[in-house]
Amino acid sequence: MLQFARFAAIRAAMALFTLLLVSFIVFSLMELVPGTCAERYLAFKNTQGSGISVADIAAEEKRLGLDRPFVVRWGSWVGNVFLKGEFGDSCILRLNINDLLGDKFLISAGICVAALILAYLIAIPVGIIAASSKSALLNGSLRFVSYLGLAMPNFLLALIIMLVSTVVWGDSLTGLFSNQYRDAPWSFDKLLDFLSRAWLPVFILGWSATAFALQTVRALMLDENGKLYVTAARARGLYGRRLLWRYPARHALGPIINSLGFDLNRIFNELPIVAVILTLTEAGSLLLESLARSNDQQLAGAIIFLLTATIVGLNFLTDIALALIDPRVRKSVMGG
Fold this sequence. Notes:
Structural class: mainly alpha
Number of helices: 16
């Protein structure tokens, strides 16, 4: 128990250090964008005919504290993020980022996590069966489906589903809410309406994730099936499902669990394009807007940091899960 507590404490410290390092990188990238936040904001106001002067820029920079040293500004920003959960104001929109994001990031994270869970709920049992089955038809069919999932982009699948839905039912299935619930406060009816539409982005994002995970599980199972310890278990009279789940499947789960954070990151990377096609008003679409259109680096930096924090947190949980499954993981940490 003491060894496990030591392992968890080390992993937690590593996760915290990673977040601090990421916060420094994100803040540095925000600062490296040409022009200060005040200059970009006032340039945006000038495009609307406001007639901003150099003196106005200097006053705005002083108001935002941009005249302070870089390290002091980073320390203030990271302190507000870690201690208060505050990301400050959007550079262009001049709105509080916490209010601007609202529940958008939680919705985005929920969609991505649901797509990840869907992918592994399908890929793990199907991949294990595919690796253990001798049926050429079954293996060929699963290989075709997985290759199709890898070859067909998510945005193309979204367009196909929208086209079929529009022709057959007269509804393109775009958006996460119906018109009557879009601006309404959360309620049980709004939750049901959300669930009736959220399945589409979950399915689309889980499409390629399932194909990728299926290939991974199948390859790991095939590799484990050929190892000597499996042959030795068969020699001792262990066959069928008992052999499958006790040895190769159990050992193959380690790398699969360890890749959850990577897979979640890959799903979120695909979310902005899917969000544009399906007109989803959530963090993926907001990230694309802040990076490509409005150049609002403060808003983009907040979303990227939240995404990184989610992935780091998931990796921490997977490390704990691996330690519970495999004692060798605990003993490998810091020479333990």
